[in-house]
Design goal:
mainly alpha; Four Helix Bundle (Hemerythrin (Met), subunit A); two-stranded antiparallel ribbon; 9 helices; elongated
Length: 202
């Protein structure tokens, strides 16, 4: 339902006003309507990332070198959540997640995770982000990134997997909250926790 509402807003059929309601408006044509390829919904992307990047973080805790950790620290040091502009924050967010997968020394995975992240830069995600992104959200995400980094530095695969999964679960939660539905493991195995998701994929 949430993704359908976002799609209708992007297509110029609805206007969503958080705290007020959803309003039908006169249809306005957009370039999206003529797009030759479908765009995945933002929540679908976050679920996929939770499943994949949790496993990546687990392996990173086993394989990350001191140089890998130094690179991750450099990225985290550049973050100033209270003053970050959206474009800058998104760029650093991407660098952080790609730096973690880069510890596995696998170009295919680096490209895949990067491309998966880049799919958030589409009209659906941009319209959704407009409702939820602020300095508090970026600060929370930065603290979650730090926990992932610390678990990897501690060479704790279980904690690294859990920290990444929790970060992406909370990202889903932050985007979902204004639409009246919060992610639950009862509805989606990929958001149910690391061990549950792993069993569901077996």
């Amino acid at each position: 339902m949430r993704e359908a509402l976002i799609a209708l807003e992007v297509e110029g059929r609805l206007r969503i006003r958080v705290g007020s309601g959803i309003y039908v408006i006169e249809h306005q044509s957009t370039a999206l309507a003529s797009s030759p390829s479908p765009i995945e919904g933002p929540f679908e992307l976050l679920r996929a990332r939770a499943f994949i990047e949790s496993a990546v973080a687990e392996e990173a805790a086993r394989r990350a070198t001191d140089a890998d950790l130094a690179r991750i620290d450099e990225i985290l040091a550049e973050v100033t959540p209270a003053r970050a502009k959206p474009q800058r924050w998104i760029a650093l967010d991407r660098q952080f997640h790609v730096a973690i997968v880069a510890t596995l020394d696998n170009a295919v995975l680096v490209r895949f995770v990067g491309e998966l992240f880049d799919q958030r830069i589409n009209p659906y995600f941009e319209r959704l982000a407009r409702h939820v992104e602020d300095a508090t959200m970026w600060k929370d995400a930065h603290e979650e990134h730090q926990k992932i980094r610390d678990a990897i530095a501690a060479r704790d695969p279980t904690q690294a997997r859990a920290a990444m999964h929790e970060h992406l679960r909370r990202s889903h939660q932050r985007f979902a909250k204004d639409f009246g539905e919060w992610p639950s493991g009862d509805h989606d195995a990929s958001l149910a926790g690391p061990q549950t998701a792993l069993r569901a994929s077996a």
